[in-house]
């Protein structure tokens, strides 16, 4: 467990807060570094202005090191993406980010959250299972890799109510 001093020494206390439009460039950088088909700055600019989209940023000191984004419809939401800077992974930051994001979704009246995850992405699957998500379906050859390989997606769900 980190003390406040070691958190300060590592660059500051982590803060999870709503993302703002000027974060679009940094969020796009994080997404491109984390996924084969990264979203562009323009895509984040649109999401950050949509009323049905919830975007949280994770800051360490002044630096944005992660984000979570979901789209809401009625009492359901889809977790579209979550990412942490590669240099900051393995410290439990994604757990706090995900739980905080889910809490805000619940505060918006969301009762069920869905997501899709690459079947062989073990770190992401461990995170989602730890957070209470369960596999409810599978999509064969859903993700297209740069080399042409097609990977399966798992559809997961968590009830918030």
Q: How are the SSEs ordered, and which strands pair?
A:
Elements: H1 4-9, E1 14-18, H2 24-34, H3 41-47, E2 53-60, E3 63-73, E4 76-84, H4 93-107, E5 112-118, H5 122-130, E6 134-144, E7 150-159
Parallel strand pairs: 4-5
Antiparallel strand pairs: 1-2, 2-3, 3-4, 5-7, 6-7
What does it look like?
It is a single chain. The protein is α+β, with helices and mostly antiparallel strands and about 160 residues long. It is built from 5 helices and 7 strands, in the order αβααβββαβαββ. Strands 1-2-3-4-5-7-6 form a 7-stranded mixed sheet, sandwiched between helices. α2 (about 25-35) packs across α3. The two termini are about 30 Å apart. The relative contact order is 0.14.
Instruction: Count the DSSP helices.
Output: 5
Beta strand count: 7
Low-confidence stretches: 1-10
Strand content: 35-45%
Biggest beta-sheet profile: 7 strands, mixed
Average pLDDT for all residues: 88
Helical fraction equals 25-40%
Could you say which overall geometry the principal axes of the C-alpha atoms support?
Answer: globular
Structural class: alpha+beta
What's the end-to-end separation, in Å? Answer: 30 Å
Radius of gyration: 16 Å
Strand order of the largest sheet: 1-2-3-4-5-7-6
What is the element string, with H for helices and E for strands?
Answer: HEHHEEEHEHEE
Features:
seven-stranded mixed β-sheet, disordered N terminus, single chain, globular, about 30% helix, alpha+beta, about 160 residues
């Amino acid at each position: 467990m980190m003390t406040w001093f070691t958190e300060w020494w590592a660059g500051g206390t982590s803060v999870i807060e709503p993302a703002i439009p000027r974060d679009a460039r940094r969020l796009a950088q994080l997404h491109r570094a984390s996924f084969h088909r990264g979203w562009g700055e323009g895509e984040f600019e649109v999401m950050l202005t949509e009323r049905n989209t919830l975007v949280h940023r994770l800051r360490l000191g002044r630096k944005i090191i992660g984000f979570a984004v979901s789209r809401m419809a009625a009492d359901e939401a889809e977790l579209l993406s979550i990412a942490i800077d590669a240099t900051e992974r393995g410290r439990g930051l994604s757990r706090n980010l995900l739980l905080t994001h889910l809490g805000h979704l619940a505060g918006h009246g969301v009762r069920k959250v869905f997501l899709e995850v690459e079947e062989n992405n073990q770190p992401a699957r461990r995170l989602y299972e730890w957070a209470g998500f369960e596999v409810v379906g599978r999509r064969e050859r859903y993700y297209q890799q740069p080399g042409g390989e097609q990977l399966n997606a798992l559809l997961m769900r968590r009830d918030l109510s």
